[in-house]
Amino acid sequence: MRTTASRLLATFRLLALFLVMSAAAVATPPGDARFRLLKLDGYHVKWGTAEFGAGATVTYAFVNVPRRFDGARNCEELVPVDALARQHRISLAILHEEAAAAFRMWERVANISFRRAENPDEADILIGAQGRPRGRAYANVIPRGDKADGIQGIQQAVACLNPEHRWKVGFDGNIESFDIRYTLVHEIGHAIGLDHAGPSGQVMSFSYDEAHYELQPGDIRGAQMLYGIRRMN
Ligand SMILES: [Zn+2]
Fold first, then answer.
1. Residue 47 sits in a domain of what CATH number?
2. From CA 109, how far away is CA 30, in angstroms rounded?
3. If you measure from the C-alpha of residue 233 to the centroid of ligand 1, how many angstroms do you get, rounded to a whole number?
4. Could you tell me where the DSSP H helices lie in 88-155?
5. 12 Cα to the center of ligand 1, angstroms
6. Which domain range does residue 182 map to?
7. Between the CA of residue 101 and those of 15, 42, 188, 220, what are the distances in Å?
8. How far apart are the CA of 5 and the centre of ligand 1, in A?
9. For 46-99, what is each residue's pLDDT tens digit?
10. CA 14 to ligand 1 center in whole angstroms
11. How many CB atoms lie within 10 A of CB 71?
């Protein structure tokens, strides 16, 4: 069994995170609610008002043309997911629905709402495949720079999937192939301001072990600390 570690790569204005994997499933103690908030330049980051517990509305889009993010440590080259979907026999419609489901998982627990933007130029979070494949999946978070009281706003985030890795829809126990939705839930977690929560037990943990499909207590606590508890309209 092979295990790779997670790393956190930070630059002055940009943080790159990488997902990660472990071949070993580790038991989670009951009631485990670990979480860690992302820090960039010493400040936590969130969408909307730079204030803990303040809700936010965030747009996302799949890139439809190649994009470059010069200076980014990861996701520097982003391309449409079409080829990835084709290669892994996943229809684009299903891939888009899996992404929507991933956003809804965060939306259900915290006061953050997501809307798919028609135009990627206007989206807050961009999703695509890596133009230069490596690793499994990454997220980049670019802060706005409006630092106050230990927190700053997010300007843009990017999530990218390695098209050469093996992808699937749903869990099947084969952890050499990653579930698209679960991977996106994890990367969206980074994109909204959460860091890795230890090796296992939470969606924001850095292992891919198919031990749970839903957000775990630590994931929920972290998102609620940033955006508040979901208010029913
Ligand atoms: Zn990660």
1. 3.40.390.10
2. 19
3. 31
4. 92-109
5. 19
6. 8-21+35-227
7. 25, 32, 11, 16
8. 11
9. 999 999 999 999 999 999 999 999 988 789 999 999 999 999 999 999 999 999
10. 15
11. 10
